[in-house]
Amino acid sequence: MAAPRIQFLFGIPLTMAGLALLSEPVRAVPAQVLLMRHGHKDPAAHHYNLSPAGFQRALALASVIPACFGSPTQIISFALDPDTSKNARSYQTAVPLAVASGVNIRLDHTSIKDSRRSGNLMLRNNALQGGLLVLFWEHRHLPQLAAGLGWPSMPPIADDDFDTLYRFTYAQGSSIPLVTRYSQAALLDGSQRCSALTPRFRP
Q: CATH number of 6-12+26-165: 3.40.50.1460, 3.40.50.40, 3.40.190.10, 3.40.50.1240?
């Protein structure tokens, strides 16, 4: 059975959300933003690397993301500590997509202290206008990142949730996203079809 496709906009009915969009200032924003947690980790391991299952999922996402959502304009990862490799899993999850697409990974050094500001800065980056931004993040900071991207009510990510993928789409000139939740596993096994992923709002 296909994973449920949930659409919501700050908990406001879409008819009211449409009114809110009209009041938003005109801004240059990406057409789509994909947010996801880094891949699976072994909770018993004493290192900061992905588990073998997490690495295999990252390899699979390198094919399914371009097939379903298009080629990324930019790939951004939660920052890692260059000395200890703490938080390296986000970067490791991004690597297969970067290799497959030829897009360099940018480490967001603001993310550790202020992921909300990271999101705000992304929405102000004119180079991303109309593009696809793919973000791999540490799960405790994902709600703050989502708030900076215009969705302040993202629920906390469960410690054992390595499957959820959030897609933000923006109407032209608006910084208020339409948020859709997907299951990575369902995209990969075909129970959620890519044909269902047409953006609601086109830039």
A: 3.40.50.1240
